[in-house]
Structure formats: structure tokens, C-alpha cells
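Figure-free illustration: sequence to structure, shown twice.
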Amino acid sequence: MRNCPRCLKTAVIEDGYCGHCRECTLPPLEEIIPLRVTAAILDERKYQESKWPGHRHSTGEWLLIMRKCLDDAQRAWVYGHGDDSAALHEIRQVVAVGVAAMTQCGSPCRTVPNGLTGRCFSTGFVEPVLDLANLTARKPGRGTFTSLIEHFRKDYPKVTLYVENVLEPRFQRKLVRLGFTEVPSEWSFLPKSYVLLAVQR
């Protein structure tokens, strides 16, 4: 018996969820993933199982397989010249391989207690993490964001703060002044992300 990471109730946890979550909390699958998408993934998994029955791999091996499939998808998109159909066929394979990997190696939930998340940085897996996104100040330029960060640092020092997809150079510089560090990424064309790690005590 332990606290469920989703609904926080004390229950027997199975596959990451308690019985209460399964019955009440989680929305129907079709509300999140259209049935046509689920059907395509299931068909691909059946094909993969028939082609490579009983194959087992480590997490690292699954990542290499997914990378190969993703490279195929990128190549199909580049040479598709505006026709995405070939790339989408490859994406279906990528997703199905991911399902196979999680089926064999584990399927950890995204959320941890109190609605926070966990993230993997170069320093390793960190939790709890609060993702800051889509923030808008009613009166910009009056230090609202700075006050928010100071509040979190004072009252929740053990929570890591994460800001994703920062486009404005001015805001990037502000985050650095507030103590955030840029998250290294191998994809130079993507917007930058920044992290303020929890205070270690």
C-alpha cells in the first residue's frame, strides 16, 4: 500500500495506477487518442510481433531501434517534397516500437505527487519538477515573474523549476540572472529551455 502518484489516495498500485484512478480519474482513451490512431498503432504492433516474435531488448537497445526508425521517418519526410504520407508510415512504426519498449521495460507515469513532474537532465533524473509554461502577467514589466520565482525559492526550495521553449533573448537573459541554467540540447534549431535546480539540503 502506498500513495498513488495520480490521485494521491492510499491504495495498491498496479502498473502505475491505483484502482481508483482506473475507475474514476483517467479519462477514456478515445478522449486523448482518436480510435483511428490507436487502431494504427495496434496493427503495427501485431505486424512487428509477427515479424519478430518474442524479441526482447534492453532499454538502450530499444532506443537504438527507435532512433533508426526515426531516422527513416526524417529521411522519408525530406524526400517526400511536401507529401507526408511516407513519413507518417514511419512515425507509426516509431510509436509502436515505443509501445513495445514500455511493455517490456516499464511504463512509469509522468506525474509525481501534487501534480508535479519528473525530468531527466544531464545530472540525472530529477523530481519533483514544476514546469512553468504559458505564463502571462496582467501588468508586464513590474517584476511579477521575478517575484514568482523568489516565492517558489523561499517556500518550495526542494522543487526544481523548468522553463521550456524560451524564444525571447531578453527573457533568456533574465532567467540566467535569476539563477537558471540553459539545458544542453543536441538540436540547435529548437528553442532553448532553462532549469533552476532544487536547493540541496
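We now fold a second protein in the same way, so the two outputs can be compared directly.
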Amino acid sequence: MDRAKIDSQEKDIAYDEGSVFMVPIKQGTNVIGIVVRKSNINPSALGYFLENHTDDPCAEACSLNGEKAKAAFILTIIFVDSQLTSGNWPLLGRIPNWSRQSWPIPDLCEKNPLTKRAMLIRLCDNDIDEIESMTPISYENSRLS
């Protein structure tokens, strides 16, 4: 590849834990995301997602902490970060004074609709690629609160 092509390629956008970003859902509708953990080896991150109710979503996300934050989130997932690094999910800012202790990783639930089995998954706090424990739970009652 020649030098001009290399120079013209866009560089990946850098993000870190505590980054706040916008996920466009449909025309005029967005969801706010917060990067809670980055993978140590894979291009992925664990994020908390909440509805956007304001003209200043970064300020809304930055105002959350503790139980207020837990109640506000509509989804917690591990996602591939290509939408962030490409700019398709624009970065809005960063939570000031970011602290992992203030944003713990919740237990996750994995459901298999084919086998009707569910697992409660606890990830290692320092590495979302590492599972600390997996516990079978009732498929019917597998919604986490």
C-alpha cells in the first residue's frame, strides 16, 4: 500500500473506561452508553446503556452514580467496539473522576432459547474476558434486577 493511502486512512478513535457515547437507534432517537470496562485482549467493552431524556446526554450520564445509576440503565452488555472506534457511535465526553469501584460489573444472564437453559455469569472485575463463575439458574425466572 502506498504512503498516500496509509495517510488518508482514518485512525481509530480512542476511548477508555468512563467514556460516554451516543448510539443512534432511529431518526431522532438515541441511547446513551457508558464504557464500564474495556477488554484486555479483544476489541470489546462492557457498557451500561440508558435512554436519552435531555439535550445534554453527557451531563445526564455524568450525574449518575450508585443506586441512581443502577435504576437508570436499560441494558448492560458486552459489545464489539468497532462502532466506537469508527465514530459511528460518537464519543460525548468522559465521566469526571472515573472510578471502577463506583461502577461495578453486574452479574450477567445468558439465556439459550433452544435448550431453555440459563446461566448467571460473574465476570472478573479486572478482565471482562475472564469468567469468575457460572451458575445455572431457572430459565423462567432468569431476568436479573
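Summary for the second example: The chain has four helices and eight strands.
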